[in-house]
Amino acid sequence: MKLAYFWLTPQGKQLAERLQMQFGGTVESKANFAVTVERGFAAYDGLIFIMATGIVVRTIAPLVQSKASDPAVLVLDQQGKHVISLLSGHLGGANDLTREIAAAIGADPVITTATDVQGVAAFDEIAKRNDLAIENLGTLKYISGALLEGKTVTLCTDLLLSKPCNLSQIRVTNEPEGEHRVVISDRLLPDTQGAKTLYLRPKSLVIGVGCKRNTEPAHLAACFRKFLETYQLSALSVAKLATIGLKQQEPAILQLCEELGVPLEIVPDESIRNCPYPFETSAFVQSVTGVPSVSEACSYLASGCGEVLTGKAKYAGVTLAACRRVLPPLKLEE
Question: Mean pLDDT over residues 250-272, rounded?
């Protein structure tokens, strides 16, 4: 976690430097305070202020956008008696960081998020802990609200649980059901009218890509969208794209990776030639690329020889294939 410390008094600076020694990060200058904070809001994962809470609130108020993107913000008094989780408690990690810093310096952690105070499950925290993308963040408030009211929320997950669910208000089901539900899956499932469903997407899919030289980026992107729609797979679950060395600088593939925010893995030709899996082979592909399969083989090998979901899907000048890699069991609790 990339941290920045802000201070206004000599005593505050001493505490900031002490924290830097334990947790790393950058102690910022107090010169041009508001400008420095604005820059830090975009550059750091966590901002730690050692000053009055009111100063912090007034300074960051114009910068706050969304719990999905705002950094963790903590406030400490200059004597280090209290550590306040002010912003992005769950997704930004402010609550966990508050507990860590408080324990390290013998301070009182001040955490006010309702789920923490009442001791119920927080699915934004579960998402962060398990590297799950939240598809519809606006629905989170309904799920959290139901739990705070003492209602039961059903959980349908494609991931194995690390241990049986012991959370009293969470009922694990095989299919989505109930008025308030959470679905953890890379699959696109039909919605039920009237139900509040929170979708959490695991980074489980590896998409193999093959295309003709100088394929238009817009064409590849359109094929990719059609592919996911056809096989009912979530774009948020794509962990990476994979292709062969011959295509590692293909502009359309690189642009698609950038749009998705995922890395590109290059699968060695020799690994494809030596792989025993019965891919659909092509003499033409072999003559052009030197390997008998591109998208299907790359998806399979880059997923760690995971579950084959689609085989090779053919489009004009483009081939795509999807495999599901094995993920760690789901941790509902620390």
Answer: 96
Q: Residue 221 belongs to what domain range?
A: 205-324
The kind and range of the H/E element at 199 are strand 196-202
- Is the distance from CB of 289 to CB of 191 less than 8 angstroms? no
Question: Residues 6 or more apart from 295 whose CB is under 8 A from it?
Answer: 207, 208, 209, 210, 243, 312, 313, 319, 320, 321
CA 94 to chain centre: 16
Chosen domain end from 87, 112, 137: 112
pLDDT digits (tens, 9 = 90+) for 268-318: 999 999 988 888 878 888 888 888 889 999 999 999 999 999 989 999 999
What is the model's pTM? Answer: 0.79
- The half-sphere exposure of 108 on its side-chain side, counting CA atoms within 13 A, is 6
- First-to-last alpha carbon distance for the chain, in angstroms, is 19
DSSP conformational letter for 155: E
User: Rounded distance, CA 304 to CA 324, Å?
Assistant: 9
Residue 110 pairs in a beta bridge with 84
Look up the CATH number of the domain holding residue 172. Answer: 3.40.1390.40
Residue 217 lies in a domain: yes
